[in-house]
Amino acid sequence: MHISHSGDDLSTTLDQWRERGDTIAFVPTMGNLHAGHIKLVREARATGGRVVVSIFVNPTQFGVGEDYASYPRTRERDLEQLADAGADLVFLPEVAEIYPEKDRELADVDLGGLDRILCGANRPGHFQGVATVVSILFALVRPDVAIFGRKDFQQYRVIQRLVETFGLPIRLIAVETEREPDGLAMSSRNSYLDAEQRGQAACLSQVLAKICDRLRQGHKDYRAMEKYAIERLNNDGFSVDYVSIRDSDDLSEAGEKTTKLVALAAASLGTTRLIDNMEVEL
Predict the structure, then answer these.
(1) Residue 224's CB: how many other CB atoms inside 10 A?
(2) Is the C or the N end of the chain the one with fewer CB within 10 Å?
(3) Phi, psi (5° rounding) for residue 164?
(4) Which residues pair with 2 in a beta bridge?
(5) Domains of the chain and CATH, by start
(6) SS3 at position 263
(7) Three-state secondary structure call for residue 175
């Protein structure tokens, strides 16, 4: 497994592979890898191309007071997992490699309002930071395929918008959320939870599953279902950002005739912010 720290070394290695006719499958991560990330790497391996994984904790997607400085960095363990999973190259850039002009103003990407709703409403600038770093990584790696998890559902729609806006020749693959036995969506931030909070955390997936059951039964009282979920989460010790039922294609408000739905939630236990979603097609 090759490790690159610079864009120049990355480009040299990728050019050699392309000259041999290899395609490139790319998995961008922020490290502190878990089974969900490894699932993405295995999906990339299944494309038949060379597998490139980046590990970069991106400062531009963290807001004031968020956990950029304390975000778990577990490089050695991450590299061991990636080698076992069959990654061909790991890109480990420093911040200056991705953002060489420290004081340069970064231009916003037109995300069609996706960056201002749901998680974007509570984390201003977050999705612009995501779009910025992914566009830079795409320019450096030039992948044929890029693989993302569906747990970060809004983020995936943002990446789709990015690819469509710039006409990038990249095929996107979305992989189903990997869950713990009790239903909690796997996340690098789950390690922040203490024992009591970890016991409470599965309530997030439980309320979304309850909403999805009612949607499949034909219920259309979206606001009532959202209210139920918020009350249940509050009673279980969460501080709720939102629970929302949306059109899964574009994250607009779900209507009577919407047939492709997604129930999304973001809520905190103590200082740990958790997100999850579940889709329903009627």
Answers:
(1) 11
(2) C
(3) -70, -40
(4) 89
(5) 2-175 (3.40.50.620), 188-277 (3.30.1300.10)
(6) strand
(7) strand
Give the SS3 label for residue 82: helix
How far CA 272 is from CA of 55, 73, 78, in Å, comes to: 22, 17, 22
Beta-sheet strand order (sheet of 260-269): 239-247, 260-269, 272-281
Q: How far apart are CA 111 and CA 160, in angstroms?
A: 10
- Each residue's pLDDT, cut to its tens digit, for the chain (282 residues) gives 999 999 999 999 999 999 999 999 999 999 999 999 999 999 999 999 999 999 999 999 999 889 999 999 999 999 999 999 999 999 999 999 999 986 566 778 899 999 999 999 999 999 999 999 999 999 999 999 999 999 999 999 999 999 999 999 999 999 999 999 999 999 999 999 999 999 999 999 999 999 999 999 999 999 999 999 999 999 999 999 999 999 999 999 999 999 999 999 999 999 999 999 999 999
* DSSP 8-state assignment for residue 107: P
- Active-site hit among 2, 5, 37, 219: 37
> To which H or E segment does residue 24 belong?
strand 24-29
Query: What is the C-alpha separation between 119 and 128, in angstroms, rounded?
Result: 12
268: closest CA among 67, 35, 76?
67
Instruction: Compute CA distances 226 → 154, 220, 254, 264, whole Å.
Output: 18, 11, 12, 10
* CA gap 21, 52 in Å, rounded: 16
